[in-house]
Design a protein that fits this description.
Layout: H1 2-12, H2 15-24, H3 26-55, H4 62-91, H5 99-111
Helix pairs in contact: 1-4, 2-3, 3-4, 4-5
């Protein structure tokens, strides 16, 4: 669902209407990016970070680690498109209202 949503937003930003929104209606795009971030991306990325920290402590059996590593790769691949769409929106803005969200976003984007 997130992949489809990211593709829809990406396709909506193409063409003259997308350019208009990127230039003149950034408030709507920022709200959409913030909603994607808070509802879908951040909670899962925080869980991935928690698993990554626990993984190195060898708290889990090897089979579980192998399965989880495969799932994390799939999650990161799915999130890549959403992150790229949000990056396109946020880098066009002159002033980002929520700098903490933008900083966390940039860190997670760099880790992808």
């Amino acid at each position: 669902m997130l992949v489809d949503l990211a593709r829809t937003v990406k396709e909506a930003l193409l063409g003259p209407l997308g350019d208009f929104y990127l230039e003149h209606r950034q408030d709507i795009l920022f709200d959409l990016s913030g909603l994607l971030w808070s509802k879908y991306l951040l909670p899962i990325m925080q869980r991935v970070d928690l698993y990554t920290e626990m993984r190195h402590q060898r708290e889990y059996p090897m089979e579980f680690i192998t399965n989880m590593d495969e799932l994390i790769i799939q999650v990161k691949n799915s999130f890549a498109e959403a992150f790229n769409v949000m990056h396109r929106i946020l880098t066009r803005m002159d002033f980002v209202e929520d700098m903490i969200m933008y900083s966390k976003f940039a860190i997670y984007l760099a880790s992808l």
